[in-house]
């Protein structure tokens, strides 16, 4: 039943060959999946097999049934959403993590899993130029979450406990707590409020006007906080965004921190830099982190723009004691001498789930393979491609830029109606030659060109621009 070592080697080589062939041919595949709802399931047997099947048959069905239903996120022509990119070193790191089968809930359950993670988070503090208070040798420290959504939830839960004097988990939330984020902040803030038992009605979405590049307006934040306090509510959490999903806008963290200190002292300030945080590897792009030393927590996703495959979010707190006290539960069956000594980190206390994978391994592989300078070169290349694309848009009278370009996201429109822009978007995506997504800015449908895939080069951006212009002309 179980594979022998020889069988595993043979099948493993076949899988590696399959992945290599897939990556070699991905550029020529239609970016969007070409199936209708239910089509993949219709090709699968109604019941599981009673007896094991040859592995070659599984690989054949992967090719014939599964692959047509795949949207190719690793295509160099994927310009939608934000990238969820990968790389060879990351894939192999993930493979080794699966082979080791580590459950890293405690230091004792695999010391290397915990200590490599702590060390990688400290490396990244230096690589990104983050405040020293986020290092593990201070009162703070970092942890790898699955996504930025989990980081936001953990920060918000810690803020809730601080605001209620650690009674929320015991007596329930009785104080009318309110939180704040930009109107362009990720929906994860809203979901976190729901999960924390505070309700979406207690999240204030603060104006982020076009005149300010769609970044949060600190004056509107202060007005909202002041009004809530006058109404007897308790401002307890503020979420700033570095690289908003719709526009790539960067909230003015330093000014927001000043408002929090002045109008809501004691409130927790979290910065979500899920996509754009990687840019800070480049010293000249660290303007996005201005004021970060005034914050309580910060997170970004290496699985978006740092060539580490999904999932891998890096989350730091200035005071790890608050986070641990919020999330720690210690049943007898998890007690051990190392934990009792207080000399080790047990990352189960830094997240919602108990179990955790060996995510640090793929992060380590990527950093060691590319090196800091290699990563900088790739990031600078993507930012430059976005600048060039934005210049092409600005120079063509048929198009308009819909928001300032900050890093690698360009928001633009065909001059005309929303219906025209929708038709252009639909035709571009139906072509199979590229994939774009949209947003709405000031009520207008806007196209988003996100440049950050691992293998995207200038020729791919040039081909996309040619197709965009041709399609806009056909639909005009």
Describe the fold and architecture.
The protein is of the alpha/beta class and 476 residues long. Helix 15 (418-430) crosses helix 16. The strands form two sheets. Strands 1-7-6-5-4-2-3 form a seven-stranded mixed beta sheet, with helices on both faces. A four-stranded antiparallel beta sheet has the order 8-9-11-10. It has helices at residues 5-25, 39-42, 55-66, 88-100, 111-128, 148-163, 168-171, 188-195, 218-230, 253-263, 302-305, 320-327, 337-341, 360-395, 418-430, 458-475, and strands at 141-145, 177-182, 203-206, 234-241, 268-272, 297-300, 313-317, 399-401, 409-414, 437-441, 444-450. The protein has three domains: 5-30 and 33-70, dopa decarboxylase, N-terminal domain; 96-364, Aspartate Aminotransferase, domain 2 (3-Layer(aba) Sandwich), CATH 3.40.640; 378-475, Aspartate Aminotransferase, domain 1 (Alpha-Beta Complex).
